[in-house]
Design brief:
This protein has a domain at 30-94. It contains three helices and no strands. The chain has helices at residues 7-27, 31-56, 62-92.
């Protein structure tokens, strides 16, 4: 981020990414694209954390640490979600949300 770039540019970018992620989460039926939409939402939050940290507290790194924490949580979430998706594919031979309509114990 350069000194001349206004904060509103980063907020607009984060907002666009957030709503694209929400749209993808609500309209897609494939579990992989739903997972990618959740990752897009998390990355939009990361942009906001870093942008607000840069403009409000340029000498501190709290926004960067929150971003690193979110990236770590997103990596763990993606690993668990992919394991669940693989298990659903083995049971139903499809990764569409509508095909996974029963639970086994």
């Amino acid at each position: 981020m350069t000194e001349g770039t206004p904060l509103t540019y980063f907020l607009i970018l984060g907002t666009i990414m957030f709503f694209i992620g929400i749209y993808g989460f609500l309209t897609r039926r494939n579990l992989i694209t739903i997972l990618m939409s959740v990752e897009l939402i998390l990355n939009s939050v990361n942009i906001n954390f870093v942008a607000f940290n840069k403009y409000l507290y340029p000498d501190k790194l709290q926004g960067h640490f929150f971003t690193l924490f979110i990236i770590a949580v997103a990596a763990a979430e993606a690993a668990v979600a992919i394991a669940i998706i693989i298990n659903i594919y083995r049971n139903f031979n499809s990764i569409n949300v509508e095909d996974a309509d029963e639970m086994k114990y």
